[in-house]
Amino acid sequence: MLVDLRSDTVTRPTPAMRRAMADAEVGDDQYGEDPTVRLLEETFADITGKEAAMLVPSGTMGNQVCLLALTRPGDAVVVGARQHVVLYEAGAGPANAGVTWLAVPDEHGRLNVGDVEAAIDAAAHHQPVPSAVALEDTHMAAGGTVWPKDRLDAVSELARRRGLRVHLDGARLWHAAVATGGTLRERAAAATTVTCCLSKGLAAPIGSLVAGPLDVMDAAHLARKRLGGAMRQAGVIAAAGLVALRDGVERLAEDHERARRLGAAVAERWPEGCLPRAGVQTNIVVFSPPDPGGLLRHLGESGVLAGTIAPGVVRLVTHADVDDAGVDAACDAIARAPGP
Q: Is the model's pTM score more than 0.90?
């Protein structure tokens, strides 16, 4: 048995998704004529409480079209130092949108209101002028941590009061909603634009969704075309996304519980605190073992695939294709890991 914990993007489409894809009614999405794409976009706009939505091939493209729609070249974006849009998109923000990052600490994956306000105030002292704030919920690099709703709202309120718009990278916003018992609409309300990924956790083979006000989404459509993301008979993708929304969200709680089991195994093997203080909140376990390379080799020899997200930082991610038996095998391999 091979247990793949590298990412929740490695899932295979479910039989229901494959049937839906085969039977999808399609049209040319570039002309706005694909009915399945339109249904998916309308569904997502309703779920998030936004005026309009758009299907894009990937989460990175979703973030990029939002940056292009919300900013102008030379603008600054206040952002957490370890957010996906900063560290894990190959420098796409500055390259595509011409923005400067005003990176502030994001301990536990959250920004402090005071740090955000200081970054905004710095513009009066010949420093870059911000036009947007970017947030990430859940925060991958912090271990899938969830923003407390009051803090999310506080940062959003500050940004709006100071004339800045807010982008929410919600690649795993579904996980945040399930973990807190809230809704996507409640969490997306803090943002001008929001992205959510269909292939992280929900098991769809491809695609992310972007939602926001009509004027911003018009600009995002143009940005998508410029980035080469305009699609044709994309209903075959959208059909799997609709199944993901129908079948995939509630079961995320199972992934969260399995991740907590993995976190407990890590804490038992290395009790000196290699896990982040925030613990395991959703489906991601990040930790810093004494010998990351040796651990990855040992796990691989034990039939467990894992990876790193930074020097010395190992990540395990639960998903729809990892069941209780797979987690048992991974926990056993962790318990047998060599070294101190």
A: yes
